[in-house]
Design a protein that fits this description.
- This protein is an alpha/beta fold.
- The chain has one domain: Rhodanese-like domain (Oxidized Rhodanese, domain 1, 3-Layer(aba) Sandwich).
- It is built from five helices and nine strands.
- The chain has a five-stranded parallel beta sheet with strand order 1-7-6-2-3.
- The radius of gyration is 14 Å and the shape is globular.
Length: about 150
Amino acid sequence: MATRTATPREAKDLLDGGGYVYMDVRSIGEFERGHVPGAYNVPLLLFAPAFGGMTPNSRFLAAVVAIFEKDAKIVVGCATGRRSAIAAAQLAAVGYTDLVDCCAGFDGTKDGIGRTVEPGWAAAGLPVATRPDPERTWEALAAELK
């Protein structure tokens, strides 16, 4: 099955009644500032102080495989929809079959001059958590990896 896309409101409906879980692929700092309630934080990129920027999370796929079965119903989200699309493609390539890309992410998509094209989760007025479930933080999930 190809990855489907959903607006934040459509994603919320899937979380509320469709048996889906939300996987946030934003950085740890972005996640800590606010996220979808109940979300798992599995960053696609990690901050690397030595480089002064973001680098690929070499344990991304291993973490997802450790957490979720291949037939799990997963909404993948990020800030604007770019990282989530990349993450969903990587997951589909290793056999995940029920993926939904939250196309506007948490912050929303913007056009070339910064105007909002599609409001993100927060701007759509959907619930936002600032305290993660302790077992769903990247720190806790990464500690479980062998």
